[in-house]
Amino acid sequence: MVVAGGTGVLVELNRGLDVPALLDLSRVAELRESTTVDDGAAVRLGATTTYTDVLEHHAAALPGLAAAARTVASRQVRNRATLAGALVLGDPSGDALAALGAADATVEVAGPHGIRHVVASAFVTGPGACDLGPDELVTALIVPVADGPTAYAKAGARNAMARAVCAVAIELHPVARTATVCVVGAAPTAIRPGTAEALVADAWDELDDRVLRRFGALVAEAVDPLPDARGSSGYRRHAAGVLATRALDRAWDAL
User: Where do you find CATH 3.30.390.50 in the chain?
Assistant: First the structure.
């Protein structure tokens, strides 16, 4: 098994997972490098980039991703855990997944047949599953630099050290007069609510309380939550709508 930070694998090992060998990639320098690409329009984060790396080196360019990173576990975990690792573990409620989806990021995957790119919001294909072949490796995340206000809203069992029951990330794009939105924890995969995004574009000049409420309702309609011990389907759907309304209101106020 290939590991980077190892925080997710350690949990499974403690649960009795039988792994004959672990291959640690954390010292592969090429997988830790981060550079600007597309003439500065995006940041290429190496696959072993940690949440702390994002907070210390990329918060200005990627504020949405940094906001999500601040909510992840403890400082010790953020120092070790990698964004790519969180995606490969296939957690459909991942904080990084939400922020990367709203940023229209892509996942760079390398294998024996070359390099391919997967839209980040579609990379997790279900709980514990992702779009990665047995002979492939995530090598980087390509994240567009924010061109407008961002917001991240999360509901969990407590304010810290808890996975998201539901979370919503949003980025506004003032020049294009559009919004990109990603919801996690409210379906077996991340959700990009297209009808809600279209509403923001259509109502750009008249965003008021009525539009905010309609936006939240459209997000709630778009999700397909599964119940578990942390929240019922109804609660998750309700939370998605409330968090979406709050996130859009917060981002709009920052314009």
Answer: 150-253
CATH 3.30.390.50 fits 150-253, yes or no: yes
Over residues 84-125, the pLDDT tens digits come to 999 999 999 999 999 999 999 999 999 999 999 999 999 999
- Positions of CATH 3.30.465.10 in the chain: 33-144
Domain formed by 33-144, architecture: 2-Layer Sandwich (3.30)
End-to-end CA separation in angstroms for the chain: 45
CB neighbour list of residue 43: distance below 8 Å, 6 or more residues apart: 34, 35, 36, 37, 58, 61, 62, 142, 143, 145
Residue 94: Cβ-neighbour burial (10 angstroms; 0-12, 13-18, 19+):
buried
**Helix axis angle, 63-70 to 95-102, nearest 10°:** 170
Local structure of 250: helix, strand or coil: helix
pLDDT > 90 in the chain, percent: 83
Q: Which residues have CB under 8 Å from 232's CB, separation 6+?
A: none
Q: Which of 109, 134, 130, 133 is nearest to 121 (CA)?
A: 130
